[in-house]
Specification:
There is one protein chain. Strand 14 (about 385-390) and strand 15 form a beta hairpin. The chain starts with about 80 loop residues before the first strand and ends in a 7-residue tail after the last strand. About 20% of the residues lie in helices and about 20% in strands. The chain contains eight helices and 16 strands. The strands form four sheets. Strands 5, 9, 11, 12, 13, 14, 15 and 16 form an eight-stranded mixed beta sheet that branches. It has a four-stranded antiparallel beta sheet with strand order 4-3-8-7. By secondary structure, it is of the alpha+beta class. It is globular and about 65 Å long. Bound molecules: zinc ion. It holds the Pfam family UCH. This is ubiquitinyl hydrolase 1. GO terms for molecular function: cysteine-type deubiquitinase activity. InterPro entries: Papain-like_cys_pep_sf, Peptidase_C19_UCH, Ub_carboxyl-term_hydrolase, USP, USP_CS.
Length: about 425
């Protein structure tokens, strides 16, 4: 995993809290790494747990203050999150997910607890419970835009799952999102015992649709959850031999698509990024792959298309080049539609015509080395857009949603109903 190690983000003034006693009871494996102790906001003493708080395994420290259970209505959910030391990347992603209706309803209303995986999951449910508690607090009755919640209990669980997010450095929001979704998925994975691996290749005589289905079935043998149902799509890649014309196809699951930006500055359209992502690439010279039919290394063309469209599509705009950081950040505006993003051009099959509506954007402002994250999200019940800047939540007009700071886009498939 590439850590862009952004240095500082704008920390909010006035958020100085002493570490309070409940923190001392944290399990040993927690590496809290208080490298900036003076500034750390953490550990508001836990109040009595309400009836619907989810407790982590052996620890009582994962409870937030308050005893709310979420109320999903248009008046709620407009709650800020404190910056507890460069955690704007986490706050931004959390707000985007809090406004992702499928996930919100699953974690706050629809009883995910019966899905908790206690056998092969790393966290045995502690991560999903901590995140569900946070969302429940964000959606508690009488949501008051002047209050901001402490994300400490959730942070301590995500850093148990992904130690890279320990401490108080800035991190990349997209890497955080991936890791969080992976952890949530593990915690509610329907697969309770690791299956025996299938060693034989998928039968080459099957047609592409059958191959895609077989490949998806194989993926689900290991990874099968409501989180997968929501976020995972399937990408088809084709390698076509320039000599015999044989096309060898492979299908891979994806949690998001990382789109190259075909310009350093100025303005491009999202479609241009998608075009570049799916563009045919010629593999020649040293890169020549072996054709499975000719059994020889041949010049081939490689292309991608989308076989299976996820309900929630995450598009990551590659503003940072992890291998060439000296190039800095691409700060051009990528124009993207708020409604009816049409992806039929990128579909493997011409019979699918998927349309998506934008529901959230994680924004990054500043440079590669110093920056700040915010989120713009569409309220899932009122349909109005809000800006979430750590503890502050404010209304914004839709004309401001598309900005040069947009970094990770969250789209929801338009044709699906609210129920999975
Ligand atoms: Zn060939």
């Amino acid at each position: 995993m590439v850590n862009l190690s952004f240095l500082l983000c704008f920390s909010e003034g006035g958020n100085k809290y002493k570490i309070s006693s409940p923190m001392k009871e944290l399990p040993e494996q927690e590496d809290l790494n208080f490298d900036r102790e003076d500034d750390i906001v953490y550990g508001v003493p836990a109040e009595e747990d309400g009836p619907r708080r989810y407790q982590s395994g052996s620890s009582t420290t994962s409870s937030c203050s308050g005893s709310a259970s979420g109320v999903l209505s248009e008046n709620n959910g407009l709650v800020g999150l404190r910056n507890i030391g460069n955690t704007c990347f986490m706050n931004s992603v959390t707000q985007c997910l809090s406004n992702t209706r499928f996930l919100l309803e699953y974690l706050v209303r629809d009883g995910f607890t019966s899905d908790i995986n206690t056998t092969i999951s790393t966290m045995k449910g502690d991560l999903v419970k901590a995140f569900a508690n946070l969302l429940s607090d964000m959606w508690s009755e009488g949501g008051d835009t002047s209050r901001a919640l402490n994300t400490g209990p959730f942070k301590s669980q995500i850093q148990r799952f992904a130690p890279a997010f320990s401490g108080y450095q800035q991190h990349d929001a997209q890497e955080f999102l991936r890791k969080l979704l992976e952890g949530l998925h593990e915690d509610v994975n329907r697969v309770s015992a690791k299956p025996r691996p299938i060693t034989e290749d998928i039968d080459d005589d099957l047609d592409d649709t059958q191959k895609a289905m077989e490949s998806w079935k194989r993926y689900l043998r290991y990874d099968d959850s409501k989180i997968v149902d929501m976020f995972v799509g399937q990408l088809k890649s084709c390698l076509q031999c320039s000599i015999c014309g044989h096309c060898s196809v492979t299908f891979d699951p994806f949690w998001d698509l990382s789109l190259p930006i075909p310009s350093k500055s100025g303005q491009v359209r999202l479609a241009q990024c998608l075009d570049l992502f799916t563009k045919e690439e010629v593999l020649d010279g040293d890169e020549r792959p072996t054709c499975s039919k000719c059994k020889e290394r041949r010049k081939m063309t490689k292309s991608f298309s989308i076989q299976k469209f996820p309900k929630v599509l995450v598009l990551h705009l590659k503003r940072f080049s992890p291998l060439e950081r000296w190039r800095g950040k691409l700060s051009c505006t990528v124009e993207f539609p708020l409604e009816t993003l049409d992806l039929s051009k990128y579909a493997s099959s011409s019979s699918t015509s998927p349309f998506y509506n934008l529901i959230g954007v994680a924004n990054h402002s500043g440079t590669t080395y110093s920056g700040h994250y915010t989120a713009y999200c569409k309220h899932p019940y009122s349909g109005t857009w809000h800006e979430y800047n750590d503890s502050r939540v404010s209304n914004i007009s839709t004309s401001r949603v598309c900005s040069p700071e947009a970094y990770v886009l969250f789209y929801e498939m338009a044709s699906t109903s609210s129920k999975l």
